[in-house]
Specification:
Strand content: under 5%
Helix content: 55-70%
Number of strands: 2
Order of helices and strands: HHHHHEEH
Distance between the termini: 39 Å
Number of domains: 1
CATH superfamily: dinb family like domain
Strand order of the largest sheet: 1-2
Length: 167
């Protein structure tokens, strides 16, 4: 039986059978973000509401998600059932100064992060996909690397939708 969860906001279905396709799809999504990040910088920095990130801030978040998820995959390959640390998603916006970053830099970095994440996934063996870690979202739960890959794909798709709605 395959565990499938659906995001009520973007209708993404967590179909774990697509995990091995995530590396190629992550690279494709990075291209989608790059096309957006070459648009009007003023529009990219604009928040539509005080509690809604700007398209640039969402792009920075996705870049960092890819990097954090890569490290989680690598950690799960060398440590038996590691407990992941929260990435501090909300704090990063301010602490890392997302709003002050240059869109062309973020575009390049996001593509590099997607490539690094994809490369880590491409190196997983059949057994590696079933390695587990304790993931803190939505509550601390043991998850497979298959789930981590699909969850990352959800992040890419979901936030691309957030950005497109603002633009």
């Amino acid at each position: 039986m395959v565990f499938v969860q659906t995001c009520v906001e973007c209708d993404f279905a967590y179909d774990l059978t697509v995990a091995t396709e995530v590396s190629a799809r992550a690279r494709d999504y990075a291209d989608d973000y790059a096309r957006i990040l070459i648009s009007d910088p003023a529009r990219l920095r604009r928040r539509t509401a005080p509690t809604v990130w700007s398209p640039l801030e969402y792009s920075c978040h996705v870049r960092d998600v890819l990097l954090v998820q890569r490290e989680r995959v690598l950690t799960a390959r060398r440590v038996e059932i590691p407990v992941t640390e929260p990435m501090g998603r909300d704090e990063r916006v301010e602490h890392a100064g997302y709003a002050d970053e240059q869109p062309e830099d973020v575009s390049r970095q996001l593509w590099d992060a997607a490539s690094l994440f994809a490369h880590a996934l491409d190196r997983l063996s059949d057994d590696d996909w079933e390695r587990r870690l304790v993931y803190g979202y939505p509550e601390p739960t043991e998850r497979t690397l298959r789930w981590v890959a699909v969850h990352t794909l959800h992040e890419l798709r979901h936030h691309l939708g957030d950005i497109r709605r603002q633009l």
